[in-house]
Amino acid sequence: MIKRLRTLPLRSRLALLVAAAVAFAVAAVSVTCWFIVQGKLYDQLDAELQKATVLKDPKQVNQIQEALATCTQTPRVSGFGNNTYSQVVTADGTTCLFTNSAGEIQVTDADKKVVAQSQSGTGNGILRNGTDEDGNALRVLTVPLPLTNRTTQTPADAALIAAVPLDGTRSTLNDLALLLLLVSGIGVLGAGAAGLAVARAGLRPVDKLTEAVEHVARTEDLNIRIPVGDDSEDEIARLSHSFNSMTSSLANSRELQQQLIADAGHELRTPLTSLRTNIELLTRSEETGRPIPEADRKALLASVKAQMTELAALIGDLQELSRPDTGQHTGRTQIVAWQEIVESALRRARLRGPELTITADVEPWYVRAEPAALERAVVNILDNAVKFSPEGGTVDVRLTAGTLTVRDHGPGISADELPHVFDRFWRSESARSLPGSGLGLSIVARTVQQAGGEVTLSPAPEGAGAMATIRLPGAPVPPPESRDAAQM
Q1: How does DSSP classify residue 469?
Q2: Is the pLDDT of residue 36 over 90?
Q3: What is the pTM of this model?
Q4: Checking DSSP bridges between strand 85-90 and strand 158-165, what pairing results, if any?
Q5: CB of 326 within 8 A of CB of 449?
Q6: Is the dihedral of CA 242, 243, 244, 247 positive or negative?
Q7: Average pLDDT estimate for 294-302
Q8: What is the pLDDT averaged over residues 112-137?
Q9: Does domain 334-487 sit in CATH 3.30.300.30?
């Protein structure tokens, strides 16, 4: 049954659940109502029987006493019963008197016990359901007879039985049950229809979402959006907002990917074209047998080597940028001494710019990052400073309280170029003629962001040049667990 329900559409399941809930509630109310009405009707019958057992008419009392004095197996017939069955029985079950307006009540052992248990004529008696001699259903009240026997002048060893027919009451209860069943059925059907209508209305946004997802899967169109009201804050609205955000992010990601491919193709075309031209010249020289002058040959080989180095660096940068940008790479991060990474990068920078003066003031600072990526980021920042510094210039490097500043004394950077310095493949006008792919600062920004820090590039506060600033969270001393690991 559960498996069948799971195969139904969601709106059908909601309609069934609503109908089932309403059916349960209606059934509970109907059954409770039926039992309450039954109790009220029986209470009325019991009250009527209580009145019928109260002997106020002296003529009725005389008839009963005469019947007790001459009680035989053939009961006497009396007319005092009105609309009820009335009957006088002894302790052995002998009927001494019964009304002539109805048949004789079937006497049970319970009626005999009433006489045996209360010889004093007191007590409330018993109420039960019984039948008459023709099998008609009765509501019966048996009470001790509060009279004395004229012959023996002792309390009457007898009981008075009063009964009323149950046909009318049961007919009323049956009619009520039929009516409640009919109303319950209509209520359940109405609840099912209302549940289906509500499910359709409530799931209409889900249908739109499903259509949008199917459209994206069919056409790969990520520009589709689901309209959501500004005042909608329910779960469906949140789901729609999330879907719109997801498709927007995917569209942006695809656009960036396409842009990266286009930019990479553009950047790769220039060194590949130059490399192909140089190799064709060398090949043609070998094929024609006309040697290239030694100086030109060395220049060609040096150009080929430089272009291959540029291609290798560009491919490495592209590989770095192709890694998923999902925050910190927890599998590769560790507590590292940033000052050691800066000092290692400084040694490489001094080799690349031997004519420059590079000053350094480095204080201990420990961060959680990927060591190789962080060192590459610092190297890229220092390479930029070396590249744009004039010959014999100075580069100032300072690491204090988790803030690394690298200041050069080169041409600096204009205000209109500042928003683009960390874009992929972007290069300023002054850097077009210099080697590089335009990916260095974008790799720096990515690495610093993954380490939970921030990076900025701004004009130097005093004089010419630019200043790069990297801030990373950390502490001047390593945490205890890293110190313990280092000692082991």
Answers
A1: E
A2: yes
A3: 0.47
A4: antiparallel
A5: no
A6: positive
A7: 82
A8: 73
A9: no
Confidence of residue 18 (pLDDT cuts 50, 70, 90): confident
CATH class, range 235-322:
mainly alpha
| Mean pLDDT (whole number) for 15-23 | 81
Q: How far apart are CA 441 and CA 457, in angstroms?
A: 10
| ∠ CA 127-128-129, rounded to 5° | 145
User: How far apart, in whole angstroms, are the C-alpha atoms of residue 89 and residue 104?
Assistant: 11
CA distance 53 to 106: 17
- CATH for 57-165 is 3.30.450
> Which positions ≥6 away from 72 have C-beta within 8 Å?
94, 96
Cα separation of 274 and 282, whole Å? 13
What three-state secondary structure class fits 290? coil
Residue 397's Cβ-side half-sphere holds a number of Cα atoms within 13 Å equal to 25
> Burial letters for 143-179: b for 16+ Cβ neighbours within 10 Å, e otherwise?
bbbbbebeeeeebbbbbbbbbbbbeebeeebeebbee
Best CA proximity match to 457, nearest among 402, 420, 410: 420
pLDDT tens figures, 356-383: 888 989 999 999 988 888 888 888 888 8
Residue pLDDT, tens place only, 228-246: 766 666 777 777 788 788 8
What pairs with residue 404 in β-bridges?
A: 399, 470
Q: Where are the domains of the chain?
A: 57-165, 235-322, 334-487
Question: How many angstroms separate the CA atoms of 196 and 451, rounded?
Answer: 52
